[in-house]
Amino acid sequence: MAEDEYDYIFKVLLIGNSDVGKSSLILRYVDQIWNDVFVPTIGVDFKVKSIEVDKKLVKMQIWDTAGQERFRNVISSYFKGAHGILLIYDITSRESFKELENWLGEVERHASSQVLKILIGNKCDLEEKRAIQKDEGEAFAMRNGMQFIETSAKNNTNVSEAFEALAKIMVESSNKRNAIKIEKKNIKVEKGADLNVKKKNCC
């Protein structure tokens, strides 16, 4: 399908520590595949998914970023032009949760101030190994103005819901910005009063 046949084209990044399940979430969402073998992403990779949101056709270019520290400088360039970000931690890993602040710092340094974010607590199928309670994730998301969803790529729990929630707020934000642009364009500048004309009864 040609690019001009889409109503919206969005660039989406998945960020978070290595082994939080970023690649697994993308594979599950785009290809409906689950792979037990962990293969760390080298640099970046991406897939494309087309969906319908509010009767509009949306194309998402979904970028899978490496979580290892040595790739941070490479990844930073991919924040440019991003419309949406899924910030992901592993509910069984306290370390991945602690690193969220650092990842948010990367977003603030390299992404647009208008980029939209959703917090994902992945691997909720591993309830017996849970290290981060759901209310902790909810509180972190609330403090940072994000929606929060727990997912499981393995069980396909809330995976589509997470991506589509991000798509929905990206569409809504785009519509709002366009409406503001149109409103500003249609504002008519009325001619002000001529200050050089003397008023009657003026002393």
How would you describe what is shown here?
The protein is of the alpha/beta class and 203 residues long. It has 6 helices and 6 strands, in the order E-H-E-E-H-E-H-H-E-H-E-H. A 6-stranded mixed beta sheet has the order 2-3-1-4-5-6, with helices on both faces. It is globular. The relative contact order is 0.17.
Query: What share of residues are in beta strands?
Result: 15-25%
Approximate shape:
globular
Our Rg estimate from Cα atoms comes to: 22 Å
Gap from first CA to last CA:
74 Å
Largest sheet: 6 strands, mixed
Written as H for each helix and E for each strand, in order along the chain, the element string is EHEEHEHHEHEH
Low-confidence segments, given as residue ranges, are 67-71, 188-199
The strand line-up of the biggest sheet is 2-3-1-4-5-6
Q: Structural class, judged by helices and strands?
A: alpha/beta
Number of helices: 6
What is the count of β-strands? 6
Report helical residue fraction: 25-40%
What is the mean predicted local confidence, pLDDT?
Answer: 84
Describe what is shown at a glance:
The protein is of the alpha/beta class. 34% of the residues lie in helices and 23% in strands.
